[in-house]
Amino acid sequence: MIVAALMGFASGLPLLLTLTLLQAWLTQAGVSLGEIGLFALVGIPYTIKFLWAPFMDRYVPPLLGRRRGWLFVLQLLLALAILLLGQTDPHRNLTLVAVFALLVALFSAMQDTVIDAYRRESLADDEQGLGASLYVWGYRVGMLVASGGGLILAQYAGFALTFAAMAALMLPGLVTTLFAPEPNTHKPLPPDLRTAVVGPFVEFFSQRQNALLILLFILLYKLGDTLATTMTTPFYLQLGYSKADIGAVVKLFGFWATVLGGFAGGIGILRIGQYRALWLFGLLQALSTAAFAWLVYTGPVLGWLAVIIAFENFTGGMGTAAFIGFMANLTNKEFTATQYALLTSLMGVPRTLLAASTGYMAQDLGWPMFFVVCALLAVPGLLLLTRFRGWLQPAASRPGEPA
């Protein structure tokens, strides 16, 4: 369980380095909103994790075993990429900034793929729930350190030193990888690469009548919420909030609202069922996204910022809990790594490919209408949810069984 939490930290830390922290750096450097929005494309590796997952299932590095061997190499490369990103200069060479940001995202996404497989293979079936909770807790702490801690440190020490500090914080992940036990699944490796690649997809699509609609729902459910979040850091800075304000209120205070929201979401799913939870939490997510428009009229008032952040992060935590539970029920244990990589890759599409246009949307629509439009984008996913009502109930099929 300790390993799950520490690996969660190593997984969560790099994510916001190429989102929140990098956006703040680019905004301070005078980069246009349109170009900042395009930087969402460096997150493309998070949307294609299923491409390399079969290779990591099939091949074993020469040292430390299949899972730990891959992890150690990737974590070393990730720390180096973070360090080099901090040495670039947005004023002189924006392309070089994009290249190293892309490398950070690539090694981070590859690390996530191995960590998901490690956690699944290391814990017994009745330990998966607790292990996932501790992993998410560590993941949130890593995100908090990278975003809240990173912004506060950048306020006083500059971005180069901040990225160097973040690279050094990959050390706990490396130490965990060295000393953690290699999981033993008592199952042979896939006999060939074709089996590792094709098997998980054949099982997923052949056993579920609504497979394509399920994938479309995963793409749409958090679309508006994710697109809005992509541009919130430039939004706060343009309103007049300082980096320290954003770090303290948006990241540190917001972290606890997200954790409490996730806990409330888990309890809510047990009380009202998964179908109604997805509906209710999705509606609340949309309302909290629209609420950001109110900050345009209040101006940089910390009290209002705290209220909106508490509402948005709490409902976002609830929606994420229901969403992750939905995806977990779709995964077959025999193909967990690749199937989970497929689902989480789709979940990451809005954060990367679709979010690339958000800077231009904000420029053309203005901030109030931008957040209202993002809120309305939740509607298609909620309507699609009605197609799953027949089987998406508390007593529905167990994880791995046909839906």
Automatic annotation (TrEMBL):
<feature type="transmembrane region" description="Helical">
    <location>
        <begin position="39"/>
        <end position="57"/>
    </location>
</feature>
<feature type="transmembrane region" description="Helical">
    <location>
        <begin position="277"/>
        <end position="297"/>
    </location>
</feature>
<keyword id="KW-0472">Membrane</keyword>
<keyword id="KW-0813">Transport</keyword>
<dbReference type="InterPro" id="IPR004752">
    <property type="entry name" value="AmpG_permease/AT-1"/>
</dbReference>
<feature type="transmembrane region" description="Helical">
    <location>
        <begin position="367"/>
        <end position="385"/>
    </location>
</feature>
<dbReference type="InterPro" id="IPR036259">
    <property type="entry name" value="MFS_trans_sf"/>
</dbReference>
<dbReference type="GO" id="GO:0016020">
    <property type="term" value="C:membrane"/>
</dbReference>
<feature type="transmembrane region" description="Helical">
    <location>
        <begin position="94"/>
        <end position="114"/>
    </location>
</feature>
<dbReference type="InterPro" id="IPR020846">
    <property type="entry name" value="MFS_dom"/>
</dbReference>
<keyword id="KW-1133">Transmembrane helix</keyword>
<feature type="transmembrane region" description="Helical">
    <location>
        <begin position="303"/>
        <end position="328"/>
    </location>
</feature>
<feature type="transmembrane region" description="Helical">
    <location>
        <begin position="159"/>
        <end position="180"/>
    </location>
</feature>
<feature type="domain" description="Major facilitator superfamily (MFS) profile">
    <location>
        <begin position="1"/>
        <end position="393"/>
    </location>
</feature>
<keyword id="KW-0812">Transmembrane</keyword>
<dbReference type="InterPro" id="IPR011701">
    <property type="entry name" value="MFS"/>
</dbReference>
<protein>
    <submittedName>
        <fullName>AmpG family muropeptide MFS transporter</fullName>
    </submittedName>
</protein>
<feature type="transmembrane region" description="Helical">
    <location>
        <begin position="249"/>
        <end position="270"/>
    </location>
</feature>
<dbReference type="Pfam" id="PF07690">
    <property type="entry name" value="MFS_1"/>
</dbReference>
<dbReference type="GO" id="GO:0022857">
    <property type="term" value="F:transmembrane transporter activity"/>
</dbReference>
<feature type="transmembrane region" description="Helical">
    <location>
        <begin position="69"/>
        <end position="88"/>
    </location>
</feature>
<feature type="transmembrane region" description="Helical">
    <location>
        <begin position="211"/>
        <end position="237"/>
    </location>
</feature>
<feature type="transmembrane region" description="Helical">
    <location>
        <begin position="340"/>
        <end position="361"/>
    </location>
</feature>
